[in-house]
Design brief:
The chain has about 200 residues and is α+β, with helices and mostly antiparallel strands. It is about 45% helix and about 15% strand. The chain has a 3-stranded antiparallel β-sheet, with helices on one face. Helix 2 (about 15-30) runs parallel beside helix 3 and helix 2 (about 15-30) packs parallel to helix 8. The longest helix has 16 residues, at about 15-30. The radius of gyration is 17 Å and the shape is globular. The N and C termini lie far apart (about 40 Å). The model has no long low-confidence stretch (mean pLDDT about 90).
């Protein structure tokens, strides 16, 4: 991600519908964990997720997008304590690849099987995987079909409110198994006793 794109993202993400809901998902997932500790924020971009982690008492270290995802997955598995949790969000489906992905520094879009395989090969156990931004996928696909760059930009307040309402609705609708724009995954490094029992 180039400097101008990063500065734009940083200026928008606290009020932009996409990033606000992503932060809300992170906050909900953090509440499931036993308590704060150390966190590694890979693909940190403007640092919005890092700030959420820190606000919840986590000691966060931020990194940007990584070429060798298998090496990053292996390192996550290595540094996670036994019983530790990895929360992962990635762009999904190469059919959605566009100039936006190039502009924001994405290196790939994942299928469910690719993401699960990557995480499992690293030695982690996938607890849950779900799609996000399902309801707006047709609009995103249409917009990005003819895009010439990043989708990032100021959104008028009314539009921002409407788009926020749509993505918030996904919290309550049974759409998480449908194709979306992103994939979310929660994985865990097993405790030694779980490994011995074949869990």
């Amino acid at each position: 991600m180039d400097t101008a794109e990063l500065q734009l993202l940083t200026s928008l993400e606290d009020r932009h519908w996409w990033y606000r809901e992503r932060r809300a998902i992170l906050r909900r997932e953090l509440r499931r964990l036993p308590g704060p500790g150390r966190a590694l924020d890979i693909g940190a971009a403007g640092g919005g997720n890092t700030r959420v982690l820190e606000a919840h008492g986590w000691q966060a270290i931020a990194l940007e997008h990584i070429d060798e995802d298998y090496l990053a997955a292996a390192e996550i598995a290595r540094v996670l304590r036994p019983g530790g949790t990895a929360l992962i969000a990635v762009p999904c489906d190469m059919a959605l690849w566009s100039a936006h992905d190039d502009a924001v520094g994405h290196l790939r879009r994942y299928s469910r099987s690719e993401l699960a395989g990557l995480i499992q090969k690293a030695g982690l156990t996938v607890e849950r995987m779900w799609s996000w931004n399902v309801l707006l996928r047709p609009a995103v696909a249409m917009r990005r079909k003819d895009s010439s760059g990043s989708d990032l930009g100021e959104v008028p307040p009314l539009t921002n409110g409407l788009l926020t309402a749509v993505v918030v609705a996904e919290r309550y609708l049974p759409v998480k198994s449908w194709p979306g724009v992103s994939l979310m995954l929660r994985a865990r490094r097993l405790l030694p006793r779980d490994s011995a029992l074949g869990r």
